[in-house]
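Q: I have 427 residues here and want to know how they pack in 3D. Can you give me a structure?
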Amino acid sequence: MTTLGTGFARTHRWLCGHPLAFDAGLALAVLVCMVCASLADPNHGADGPSFGTRTPEPLSVVLMVLCAAVLVLRRRRPMGVLAATGALSAAEFVVTDPPAPVVMSAVIALYTVASHTDRPTTWRVGLLTMTVLTAAAMFFGSAPWYSQENLGVFAWTGMAGAAGDAVRSRRAFVDAIRERAERAERTREEEARRRVAEERLRIARDLHDVVAHHIALVNVQAGVAAHVMDKRPDQAKEALAHVRDASRSALNELRATVGLLRQSGDPEAPTEPAPGLAVLGELVRTFRNAGLPVDVACTDPGDPLPAAVDLAAYRVIQEALTNVRKHAGAGAKAEVSVVRVGATVEITVLDNGGGRSEEGPAARSGDGDGGGHGLIGMRERVTAFGGTLTAGPRYGGGFRVHAILPVMTRAGERATSVTAGGTGGQA
């Protein structure tokens, strides 16, 4: 059974790859059927139609051979083949009585046209073929117009058109399903690539925020320790303690961020929640320990912020204060405000630019040679939630960062998260 199935599949593949050979075989089979049917006498006797008592006329044999030969080209010229076989079949009805079954070739040709053209064309061509062949059989034959041979011409041509249209519809349906599946596969791959790119960008922003903030604090405290090491060792020890705390915090946050890249079965997966406005006080304390005075004002938080928005707000404040510490110079002060306005939360970070740094304003805007990706990362982070961020110098000196984040996530859901309630008032 397996060998038979394999042989059939191999033959089917070969015939699909050689359509002309298949059509030649079909034409030969149709010719054999027409010749065999022409030997039957349609006149009914006591025992029904008789076989072998009738010999087809030479003209009928010529017409049958011509129609069979024309069928070889049925795929290349379906309309021409239908016209030729239809004309030869009508001629057979006119010149011979009783006619040979040349109309078989017209039935095959009509099926081919219906299976390779659209439905309106099938209707027009099918009705015309049925009308011409049925009328020729009824008007030029000696049998009554209602004889079963004449009605058979009408039925077989109609069924040929319907069968061809059904095959064409099924083929179009299968092609549409295949195309939809391929398009869905391409869309799935593009969506996967887009999500990978977004996740890579998000992790890059988080790593930048963590490293830039803590390394800046470590740099400042290390400089203080080196400056007062000989004259004020107690203050140097305090600065080194801040360095140790900042480095430990940096390692913890880096471990939590990189831990997101672990597989589900890997050990040491992060269990602590992502930072948010609830720990804004601790963030501000690290900057104050580094010598940057920071004032914080937060309004009543109301409903909890979504976790992703809470993290974005925290990162914006962290990066803005890091830029103040790096670029505003000595003697600078910073002000942070977090205000809920309707369905948005507004974050503002101001500084007075009390001193002048070596990088200058261009570095803070990310335009100079020493400018990094801080403002670019903040803007991308805020834009990802449908918010806006503006940053630029203030009139009279200093710098201003203003971000507006929607409280609702893109999916329209609220997430339970801690808010700025622990940092209200003057932190």
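Q: Anything worth noting?
A: Residues 148-228 form the longest helix (81 residues). The CA atoms of residues 218 and 243 lie 5 Å apart.
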